[in-house]
């Protein structure tokens, strides 16, 4: 708009374009630079699991799923604050990276599986923090941690029926 106004010799419109357009452009570029893409589902969720989710998922499981599957701005990695508080992120370079999530049923209970690339934090450290993870994401959640490949850790947040 400012270029057109300049070409037509209308300095007032040119100033509006300059004073509003440049800050909007810079703001948009800053947001794009601070953008964190959504974590993908590694396996599509079946209708049976969606039904189980509606019945059993805890508010925390829903919040985690919703947070990591949308664009985020101003964060370096998904769940970075949570991992730091749990003692699983010694520093930014060694932080485990959430690379995927999936939903499944474990022993008839809804489970949200967080798939991490964790080359610097060994399975033993994850297992030592398992109870702390349960308390952090609980109540109503049981956590299992397992290593599926050399540097890949899966943390299963399993809904617990408290009857």
Automatic annotation (TrEMBL):
InterPro entries: DUF2854. The chain crosses the membrane at residues 12-31. Keywords: Membrane, Transmembrane, Transmembrane helix. The keyword Transmembrane helix applies. This is DUF2854 domain-containing protein. It comes from Spirulina subsalsa FACHB-351.
